[in-house]
Amino acid sequence: MALDLEEYLHTAFRDKLRLQAVPAWDAATLLPSTRLLLKRQEVAEVERALQSQREEFRQRMERLEQRRQQLGQRKDQLQDVVLKFDAFLKASAARQERALRRADEERARVAGQGAEAARLHRELTGLLQRRERLAQRLQSLRGFGDYLRGVLARMGQFQDVPAMLARFGALAGARAALAQQAEARQKQLAQGWARLRQYQEEASSELLRTNDELAQLRAHLEATRHDVLQEESHWAHVQSTAAQKTLLLGQIKLAVLNLFQLATAWLKVPGDVALEDTEAQLDTVLLCMQDLAAICAELRPRQPGLSLPRLPVATRMRPMRHRGARVPPSQE
Fold first, then answer.
1. Which of 30, 57, 89, 125 could form a disulfide with 34 if both were Cys (CB 3.0 to 4.6 A apart)?
2. In sequence order, which residues have a C-beta less than 8 Å from that of residue 158 and are 6 or more positions away?
3. Which range (41-50, 200-209, 315-324) has the least confidence?
4. 181: which DSSP letter?
5. What phi, psi does 173 have (nearest 5°)?
6. CA 26, CA 220: separation in Å to the nearest integer?
């Protein structure tokens, strides 16, 4: 576009600056001043032509600038229009989508309404059939209505048949409630009997278990009593044996005491031994017997083939030295 503008300006300047043909003057005949004026005139014409060309170029440039601004504004307007058109298209697509969705919903609603209408038609048909049946039943129960009116006339307690029916309905409800209560009480009673039987069974099993334990305890008690009797008999035997041993020990102590007293009295040995010290008394008796045996041995001549009887050894580990008693050398 810049090359076209440059070519256009070049052509316009070339056409405008083309000078008009100056009449041929004879250079020889013209004066220098005249030639100078002619040149000045040509230069002025060229200046005017250039000025007019500049003014035209400036105006054209202004028009071009205005045109450029108009084009920019037009471009902005077109962009706004394009944006608005895009928004319009989007809104139109959204509206179309909503319209399609509403159409689908409308078709679904119409289909649902058709199904609902079909269902209502079926219900209406069923209600009409029920109406026919109720009418037939009413026709068949008309005699009962006459009977109820006759009963109402005979009783004279109610104003109309509905009041009488309401009264009898209340009585029937109370009867049904009482029947339900009686049934509930029967159930509770059955549950109570079941619990009682369960308790009885548990008590019986507990009683059997207790009886078994009692029998075991009684058997254990009998065994314990038998053991106690055996222990008592054994203890009695031990006590009797201990009494016999005690009696024998007492007799032995009395015998030892008698021997001790006889030995000390006969041999005149001082008896400074306690009466309860039986062992010391027995040792003293043994010592006395040993003394007598030694004296007998010294006094009696020895015979071949004869030997003195051996006396028992004293019970104590060390021989006792009684005051005034003579102890044989062997005991020393």
1. 30
2. 152, 164, 167
3. 315-324
4. H
5. -65, -40
6. 183
Are the beta carbons of 323 and 272 closer than 8 angstroms? yes
Range of the domain at 331: 269-332
**Pair 80, 88: CB distance under 8 Å:** no
Contacts of 332 (CB under 8 A, 6+ apart): 319
Q: DSSP of 225-284, one letter per residue?
A: HHHHHHHHHHHHHHHHHHHHHHHHHHHHHHHHHHHHHHHHHHHT----S-TT-HHHHHHH
Kindly state whether residues 176 and 65 are assigned to the same domain. Answer: no
Give this prediction's pTM: 0.29
* Residues 236, 145 share a domain: no
Cβ-contact 327, 312 below 8 angstroms: no
How many domains does the chain divide into?
3
Q: Which amino acid is at 112?
A: G
Cβ distance 255 to 282 under 8 Å?
A: no
- Whole-angstrom Cα distance, residue 177 to residue 185? 12
Question: Is 152 a residue whose pLDDT tops 50?
Answer: yes
Look at residue 313 and tell me if it is in a domain: yes
